[in-house]
Each structure stands twice: as C-alpha cells, then as structure tokens.
Automatic annotation (TrEMBL), chains A, B:
Keywords on record: Signal
InterPro entries for the chain: Acid_phosphat_B-like (IPR005519), HAD-like_sf (IPR036412), HAD_sf (IPR023214), Lipo_e_P4 (IPR006423)
GO cellular component term, pick one: cell outer membrane
Signal peptide: 1-22
TM ranges: none
Gene3D superfamilies, per the entry: HAD superfamily/HAD-like
Protein name listed in UniProt: Acid phosphatase
Amino acid sequence: MRRLTGALAAAAALLAAAPATAQTRPDSDQPWREFQWLYGSAEGAATSRQAFNALRAFAVIQAERWRMGEPVVQRVLAPGATLDRPAFESCGDKKPAVVFDIDETLLLNTGAEYWAAAKQQSYEQSRAFDKDAWAKWEKDGAKLVDPVPGAVEAVDTLRKADIAVIFNSNRSAASMQETAEALAHAGLGVAEPGKTLFLDSAGDGKKDGRRATIAETWCVVAMAGDQLGDFSDLFNAKENGRLPVVKRRQAMGSPMLARMWGQGWFLLPNPVYGKGAEGDFNEIFPKNRWKPH
Amino acid sequence: MRRLTGALAAAAALLAAAPATAQTRPDSDQPWREFQWLYGSAEGAATSRQAFNALRAFAVIQAERWRMGEPVVQRVLAPGATLDRPAFESCGDKKPAVVFDIDETLLLNTGAEYWAAAKQQSYEQSRAFDKDAWAKWEKDGAKLVDPVPGAVEAVDTLRKADIAVIFNSNRSAASMQETAEALAHAGLGVAEPGKTLFLDSAGDGKKDGRRATIAETWCVVAMAGDQLGDFSDLFNAKENGRLPVVKRRQAMGSPMLARMWGQGWFLLPNPVYGKGAEGDFNEIFPKNRWKPH
C-alpha cells in the first residue's frame, strides 16, 4: 500500500516532539531490523514465497471448480457485509481473476526504501511517510524495483491457468503509465489502465469502490496484499480518531476472519510501513511485562 | 529460535562502537516497528494465521494419504542431502507427526520482548541477545507468554487428526519443565521430555541431530519455524565467519527450495530477532539506490 496521511501526521507529530539528536544512526552500517528482514533475508523471502505458493494453488483450484460448473463465491466482501457478518456473493458466470495490491505485495520498492532506511538518518524520519518524496518515486522509480520473491512465478501460473491478473493500488492515478512500467520491469507482465490496472484517482486511500467495480466483471477468487485495507476498507475504520490496534488484532481470531487467511485472502508480510506498524506500548505489550532480576 | 551467540557478538561489537547517546529512545511511547508488527498488529496476526491454516490443511492431507497407504516422504532432509540436492526418505509405516519450533513459532515471548523493546532503552541493546537474561526468562517466563495467533487451533486440529505434535527447540535442556509449563500455559497441551519435547543439551544451537532422532520414530509430514535453522542446519552455514546474507536469500529461488514453503515447510514471520535480522547496507540494498531530487 501507499502510506496514508494519518500515519504521516502521527509521525510528524512524533518527530516534532523528539530531541533532534535522538534516533540518528549515521554511524551504523546496518539498516533497521525490519528492513533487513523484508528486503534482505532468506526468512523474509521464504515467507513471501509461502504466501504465493498458497495463493496459486488455491486460485487454480477455485478456477477449476468454476470451470466444472461448481458454485464459487467472490472473495470481495458483498455490499453491506460487515467484519462481524462477512458475506460473499456468488460468481455466476463471471470469469476467474485474482486481485493484487502492488507495493510490497508484488513490488519491493528497494530504491525508495533504501532512502527511507539510510538517507533519512533518524528512526522517526524513516517512520514518517514523505508524501512529496513518494510522489516523485512513483514517477521515476519504475526501473528501481524488484519483484517480491515468488510474485513472478505466481502471476505466471495464474495467467497460464487462464485466470486474470488484476492490480488495485493506492498509487496515484496520475502515475498510471509509470506504475505499468514498474510492473513490466519487475517481470509481472502487462497492466492495462481501467482493465487490469486500477489506481487511486480520489486520493482517499480507499479501495472498496474499485474492488466493487472489478467484481462486477470478474469472479475474484483471491486477493493479495500487505495491509488489511487490501481486503476491505472496513479494517481501516478508526475509533476516536485512531486505529483501534488491539481490537483490530483480536478481530483476526473471529471464526470467519481467521479462516480467510490463506483461503481467499493472502497476506504478504510488511513490518516496514503501514497500519501494521502503529501502536504504543500499552497497545503492543498490554500485559506479561517482565524484566530480568 | 533462541538467539545465537554469533548475533550477540556482532551486536556487542556494534554497541561498543556506537556513541552512548545514539539510538536511545526514552522519549518514545512507541515500540520499534518490527515489535509493533509482530506482537501487536492485525497484519502480523493474519500472517501467522495464514501459515497455520496452510500447515494444518497440508498435514491432514498428508496424514490421510499415509493412512490410505500412499507413499509419503519425510519433510526432514535425508542424511547426506544438501540444499543444492535436497532429498527426502520414504516414511514407510511410521506414524504422522508435525515438528514445531517453539519461540516465536508457537509462543510469543511477550514478557521478554517487552523488556527488549522498552527496558533496554537503546536500539543496539534491543538488538543484542542477552544470554543471561534469556536463561532467566526460560526459567520464570512460563506464565508470561502468549500463543502465536492460530497456533492453538492448528495444534488442536493435528491432534484430533491423530497427528503427533512434536516440539524441537534450542531452549536449554535445563529448562525442560519450565518450557513444558509455558506450552501448557499458552494452550498448546502436553509436551513430554524425550518423547514430544526435545531441547538443546549440547548448547550448540543445532537441530539436525534431534530432527534425525524424531524421524527415526515418526513420519514428519511438516515442520514449522521462524528461522531457516528450524528446517535444516545447512541454512546456517557461514562463509568467512559470516552468514552469507545475499546468497542465502537467493537460494530461496531454487526450484526445490522455493517449492517447500507452504508445502511441508511452514515459516512463521519474525522480523524482531534471529538470522533474518542481519546484514549491512551493501547486503540488504545492493542496488536500486535512489533519493528524491
């Protein structure tokens, strides 16, 4: 996903409050741990491959069921569904497709993330989303990206199985051509604006509208993303102006939501940015606090 | 996994080289990003559930195949196999089992990790593995742990399907009783030393010997861990005294290794510690470097 303005505001506030010298690490030759894990480790690569292996097996089986005339349902939530009462419409005779987010789902933005890790020397700077820098990155980063490990093989498998590959990203609609170029550069094939490539023209960071448009044409047998907003905007609902971090994590344990992961909804790991990297100590470690004695 | 002494030495060296004021963050109420993602986020929880959903479906199908008399192979590498030439022995009439790592695979060590994130105020301190503190944690943390999201349901499914649940961890064999207590506290059931619970008595952080012992008795249809050493010690081979970070990640793209993830080998995400959090800028971002202009 593209980082959202809420995170930006929070980070900017934090930055303003912090002493100027805190968190700088001009002396270190090592990126922060989460960058090491996502962009450089075998463990991170294997976790991504695991997600793509599961996705392609699932999608091929669902598409085969559809071709056999068995009932298959959309993995896009039905209109009016809630997270407490998820519902999914029948696909009818619409043809099978898989909908992918782009950034840190199919593409590793190594160029921009190198800069976030290194050139923004402080931790708070690397946390803050620089909206202007990202806009520039969308325009000139097309040849400085890598595929997420396993993405190319998964997309190839889907296309060979006659399953449409659709891209739905919160990159700006103004970067349509450059985004298609980035996907092509990474080996992910052709993305056609308005047909298989859908970007954010409203600037609101929401995806449900575009998901509904896609589901009018296609049987969306699977979706993949690195943020829960890649599955439903309902996951991004705020309470008292904040993301309800604890409640949101607990919601993953509900019978239906717990079941979706790896069975229609496929998550690519991203500890580097986004809504998974929010929350204060009371939210992240609410109990079990310990120290050596 | 338990953190290893190599990482400790590297972190200690880094710590010694860093100015005392660098990286301290006494002013922040937010844990580092990777702690937020793993211990507190919905995205982290969903990634874990996805891995466990894939594992239980895979293991149940493999066990069913075994019961039907179809040939099933061990997911423990055969003696003499290499990562370039992986090989797997037939299970014969051995009964099905799944082998799990414990720390950050089935258990979230929230007590100790809160301390790593908060009380060790600097980033380098939170990176360093404190061997003495961990030894104390093994002894008195049994009631300060949580299950990894999805772990309890997965272990329940396996046991109901008459698949043995075996624990193989690098926790010290001196902590056998406390480790069994921690597993029970988290809802993961009974672990019997020497039968279903295997810990490190040599202190060398290696697991292949115990894996071989387990595979003498059981048909290991799946393994799960947060570190590649949970699948084979071969992944931990050093070159010139260091982990070959780039080569190790690239190895994930080989046809056989790429295929294992989600199909016999199941990775739980852990960007917080271990061999996935190593590497300098040249290893993590070897190319594609960019800055806004």
